[in-house]
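Q: Could you fold this chain for me?
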Amino acid sequence: MATLESDPIVAAKQRLALALRPRIALVGLTSCALAFPGDAEDRISVSDRVAHADAAGPGAEAWSAATVALVTALDADPDLRALRQRLFDVGVSSAFEGDHDETGLWTSLVLRCPRTNLPALETLAADEAGIIPADRDEVSARFAIYMLRNHHRDWQVNRTKFPDVGDSPYTPPEEWNPLVST
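A: Sure. Below is the predicted structure, expressed as structure tokens.
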């Protein structure tokens, strides 16, 4: 069995399998919607960062070939395709794209979701969490408070304005962060 350290394809597949859960995608995409005025967009890194100098150096061809092999394997994986399709069915598109900053290059799976489709993603997260329709308005309100307290640029101020509702209500309590929020 491959381990995270020995097989970058297995490691990336495990990261994506977690990140493509509706409840995780909902937090990421809602965070982006809070932070940016346009459509929500979230990025999930699938390849390791490589320094610009290394990407242009003698190992560039090997790095490029490894990245192509990784993305090709992830794109063809039937489990990941099914997870991506589930999100696509509620309006979340995804595509592998190169990314960079001043320190290096990497490849990400980019999720895009118009804000008008976030409620459909939230419904999918509620379905997956087993939340009955009668409770969904209350749970949605708790989720909004959770996002404002934890994922908004004014989170510190928001923690004085809004009550502590714990972790996202779409996350099972056994997976909540054990740290006490303030």
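A (continued): The mean pLDDT is 90.
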